[in-house]
Structure formats: C-alpha cells, structure tokens
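Worked Example 4.2. Consider the chain below.
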Amino acid sequence: MIISLYLVSGLAQPGTADNKTRHPARVEHVQWKVPPRNSPSFAESQCRSIADLSVSSRPVFTVTENGEWECTYLIEYSETGHKPSLFIQIRGLDPGIWSSFRLKLNFGSPLSRQVLGAQAADLVYLLIGTNTPVRDLDAMLAAGRELEMTFDDVTLKYRQERTDSNRFNLFGSKKLGPEKNANKPD
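Applying the procedure from the previous section yields the following structure tokens:
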C-alpha cells in the first residue's frame, strides 16, 4: 500500500499585519510505502503464556548460542480410548521473530476435535495475527480438511498423517527477509 500526502506551504511577508501569504504556495508530494503487515512478536514470555493450566506440563523455551530459539510444548488430555494431544513446536532465527511452526494434532473423540481445533487456531492467530484469509479456522482444523495457502509472508499447510486418520500436522513458515536470504549459502 502506498500513502500519498500533498503538503501545501507558503511564505509570509515579514512586516505584514495579517501575516497572509504573499508568495505563491508550494505543493510538495510526499510518498510513503507502507511496509507489509508483520506478524506479532513471539518471545519467551509468549511461549510460557501458551500453557494450558489444566495440565501439569509446561512449555519449554530454549535459545542456542547463535540466537536461534525454539518453543516446544506437549499437551495431553485424558480421555478413554484414543488419547488426544497437541504438540507445539515454534522456531525462530532472531529474538522475537518466529520462522516456522508445527502443530501436531492427535484427535480422539469428536469433542476433542473441537477443543484441539480451537486451541490450534488460537495459536495460529497468536503467531500470524487474526487477519487471515481463512474463516472458521478452528472448524476447518477439527473437520480434518487439508489446506495449503500463502498470504502476506506466511505459508500454512495442514495435512493428515499417512498412517493415522486421527493425526494431523499444521505447518507454518514465514518468508525470510532479504537480509536473512543474503546470509544463506547457495
């Protein structure tokens, strides 16, 4: 998006009582290119905030020497039969900026599909913001409808695992900026 402003300015004649413009007004055109919408920042505090207080496990945030970081978390729910769970893995190359994530949904009953679908959708919104082209993301995930889409600087892929119809993976990746691409070896 480009925002254009037109600034009108004039010079006042010194010594005039009313300070009205005596010279023709100058018009300046100023243009500003709005940077693409960035995803919200993600840091250790956000990693810790995704904890489900109804379970005993807590998210783990680790940082390597080169500044790369990872947030992982496994939420297991008690249910008879197939045990539903949600595994979360979020990675970043720079502090506060995620580069990829994986959400592994292990569905149990139809109710667990709704709960896990809503929880996964909330995590996606936390990472990329709520301005996504998908409406009712939670229902789409719960229904097991596969998807692949790219918008802004984000790519989302949702796929069923080959061996189990109750397990799905939601992958998200963010396009790296030019400065990161310049550091990548060819």
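The two ends are 32 Å apart (CA to CA). The beta strands are 2-9, 26-33, 60-63, 69-76, 85-94, 97-106, 147-151, 154-160, 167-174. Compare this with Example 4.1 before moving on.
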